[in-house]
Amino acid sequence: MLVNAKYELQPFDAAEALLRQPEDAGHPRTLVVFVGRDLAMGERAASVLKDAAGHLSRAAAAAKFKGKSGTSLEILAAPGAPASRVILMGVGAGDETGGEGGEAKPFEDFFALGGQTAAKMGPGSRAVVLFDLPEGVSAAHDSVGQFALGGWLRAYKFDHYKTKKKDEAEREGPTEVVVALADPDSHSAAMSEGGHLAEAVILARTLVNEPANVLTPPEFARRASELMKLGVEVEVLDEKAMSELGMRALLGVGQGSEAGIRLVVLRWSGGAEGAAPLAFVGKGVVFDSGGISIKPAASMEDMKGDMAGAAAVTGAMYAIAARKAKANVVGVLGLVENMPDGKAQRPGDIVKSMSGQTIEIVNTDAEGRLVLADALTYVIEHHKPAAVIDLATLTGAILVALGQEYGGLFSNNDELADRLTKAGNHIGEKLWRMPMGPAYDKLIDSKFADMKNTGGRHAGSITAAHFLQRFVGKTPWAHLDIAGTGMGSPLSDTNQSWGAGWGVRLLDRLVRDYYER
Question: Are 67 and 35 in contact (CB under 8 A)?
Fold first, then answer.
């Protein structure tokens, strides 16, 4: 596992035997219990804490803790408790539980609960989690895997370059969590898949967090090539190969940089032989200065994250391969750096794309769409996908429209858009579909070429999507503008990192729900 946390499944009897053992003085034991309304506990949890029940009730009353979802209560040195620290995690109270007719209502967000629990336990903890739900609360079959996934992702830190680490987690060792269940074997597959998905998201997060002097296009390509260990076929195209294919739009973006340019193709063939694959395309601008149309200096350092789309595709391909998904999937990464120098392309230049269409460069800071144009053409011509989805930190306009709560969704296919929306709602990486239409498309017509690379300030994210649509033909296509979600991510229960790895779980869920045979 790539994070400093270990989760292990054990039957209740084994966990209770562990709780009866003397505590390690250097590592006091933590016991985590899920509670509902009025401090309701599962039968097994209530039995373990029966001698401490009175003290816990008084502590909860004093803290006005009701067991509401998203709340918790920490009790230290409770008399009669089998651990120095007891953490009560709320899983719902009142209307949050009890469905129609009094049946149990599923507690859906075990992913967030896992992150909340990891935050309360803290680094270096030795904990036992009694996965025993109170009456009136039920769980889905993958709840344990989602709980562990949330914990693993909460524990992630990007501190590779800190020479003086402030926290003591490294000296204390990894967090060790025993998850106690009635039937651990029935949850082992979900736990394993949760671990694979955690590794995939962490891979994407690390790529986004890396500085551009380290994560050059060739280095990104090298790291993506490590997916071969999972059975992914990898092909890396260099500048010469791309030039022979006529990728003048993509190559033009990188011609002012000395870092190199790469196109990486990742193929997972787990579905029916010969079946058309699902294709993912990621914008991988490892640093975006804006080129000749240079950006303001303020916050330009954040432009190391302008490759978050390519990071999400890399992470998704990792997740799909690690769980041996029964689907055919192709991932394409357009990797480039946008810099100004004497060789950089200029506003007013005209380039010919791989599709044969010509593009007037109005603004060199509208570069991501040029990268995607050739990458989309390549994957459609060479792999004939059933559908193609691109992800890109493409426009500041999508931040103005949606903030950091939703990714922008643009599509030429209602079924594909609906599938993506449902997958996003399922795992909490939400999408909002934006309008498209002929009036917007006219805004990118050029006086000198087939099109220009920006339609101006108004409707900027929509005209960018229309630019991309000109390169997909009749192939079902969706464009996800993740400028608000892919980097500079707001802190959450499951993410304390600048790069959230947004999009990995979304694409994995899409494949699970709609494209596996």
Answer: yes
**Residue 270: both structure tokens together:** 């787990």
Active site residue 343: no
Distance CA 329, CA 72 (A): 41
Please give the torsion angle defined by the CA atoms of residues 367, 373, 376 and 378, in that order, rounded to the nearest 10 degrees: -110
Q: What is the pLDDT of residues 336-394, one digit of tens each?
A: 999 999 999 999 999 999 999 999 999 999 999 999 999 999 999 999 999 999 999 99
The count of other CB atoms within 10 Å of the CB of residue 168 is 9
Judge whether 262 counts as a catalytic residue: no
**Contact of 369 with 462, CB cutoff 8 Å:** no
Query: φ and ψ at 296, to 5 degrees?
Result: -60, 155
Check 29, 44, 154, 369 and give the catalytic one.
369
Catalytic residue among 66, 295, 326, 352: 295
CB 1 within 8 A of CB 199: yes
Q: Give 156-176 as a 3 state SS string.
A: CCCCCCCCCCCCCHHHHCCEE
Q: Which helix (H) or strand (E) holds 302?
A: none
Threshold 0.85, pTM exceeds: yes
